[in-house]
Design goal:
Number of domains: 2
CATH topology of the largest domain: Rossmann fold
Structural class: alpha+beta
Helix content: 25-40%
Largest sheet: 7 strands, mixed
CATH architecture of the largest domain: 3-Layer(aba) Sandwich
Order of helices and strands: EHEEEEHEEEEEEHEHEHHEHEHEHEE
Strand content: 25-35%
Shape: elongated
Number of helices: 9
Distance between the termini: 45 Å
Radius of gyration: 21 Å
CATH class of the largest domain: Alpha Beta
CATH superfamily of the largest domain: Vaccinia Virus protein VP39
């Protein structure tokens, strides 16, 4: 079993040892499961035999904004600089499913919710069926949730470093195991023109904010989305919290460009912080 920890899983280990306990429960996979861990002067030993030494535990506690893989070779910080985008990419703990951060910016809503619930809200709004295009994979939560409702999901990710993080993330395991999910590495705006017309019944477009990926908000990109969607197909476009003048302006400009691209019945999906459109 792969062991991935954050300060949230390590805190009870250190506290129990300081209280003189020899065993305590914690999660080896960021909250997905719970195991009993034995404690000694060396450190905390997991049922798989992997030992987390106390100096390693203290190192994790000192870095609360990133997760770590633990194995026989020690700690691996789940954070890398991406040469492709010039950004630092991190697996950020939340107490539930972790989120992905790009240069410190979370790619999921985490205030008043968590990344997995945030994903389910978007997928419910999209109502995926048939063949689904997920334009921005990230950690793959959207593809995983959509694949449980639809026949097949094609998900696209620009950055190989993000794919590496997804492979390290316990919450992303089904992305690489589910037989009805296909992962493509590449730029969505380059890959889309290679796809056939009217191929997908549903598109879920959840891009980073405009300042990080303006090409994914362009009229030319929206026209490609329109082309690959089947007649009467459904598009969900995440835009973000509509509060504030700037956010409302972004929402209006996105809706206008979607209509220019050919989409009809463009309307807000309030709970999911996005727009729904049909072809």
């Amino acid at each position: 079993m792969k062991i991935v920890l954050s300060y949230m899983e390590v805190q009870p280990l250190v506290a129990a040892w300081e209280q003189g306990k020899q065993e305590v429960a914690t999660s080896p996979d960021l909250g997905r499961t719970v195991v009993r861990v034995s404690l000694s002067a060396q450190g905390a030993r997991f049922p798989s035999g992997v030992l987390l030494r106390w100096e390693e535990a203290r190192h994790i506690l000192a870095h609360p904004h990133v997760c770590f893989r633990v194995d026989a070779h020690g700690l691996t910080r789940l954070q890398r600089f991406s040469p492709l985008t010039g950004r630092v990419v991190s697996l950020y703990p939340t107490g539930s499913a972790p989120t992905l951060t790009l240069s410190g910016i979370p790619m999921h809503r985490i205030q008043g919710t968590d990344p997995w619930r945030d994903t389910l809200t978007k997928v419910r709004a999209a109502r995926p069926r048939g063949r689904v295009l997920d334009t921005c994979m990230g950690l793959g939560y959207t593809a995983i949730a959509a694949a449980r409702r639809a026949d097949w999901v094609l998900t696209v990710e620009l950055d190989p470093v993000v794919i590496w993080l997804a492979r390290e993330n316990p919450w992303s395991e089904d992305l690489f195991r589910a037989p009805n999910i296909a992962v493509v590495q590449g730029a969505a705006e380059v890959f889309l023109p290679t796809l056939p017309d009217a191929f997908f019944s549903t598109i879920i477009h959840d891009p980073p904010m405009f300042s990080l990926a303006g090409e994914l908000y362009s009229l030319s990109f929206y026209r490609e989305l329109y082309r690959v969607l089947r007649p009467r197909g459904r598009l969900f476009h995440y835009v973000g919290n509509p509060e504030g003048k700037m956010a409302r302006n972004v929402m209006r400009s996105v809706a206008r460009r979607l209509q220019e691209a050919g989409f009809r019945r463009v309307r807000p999906a309030h709970e999911a912080f996005g727009l729904i459109a049909t072809k």
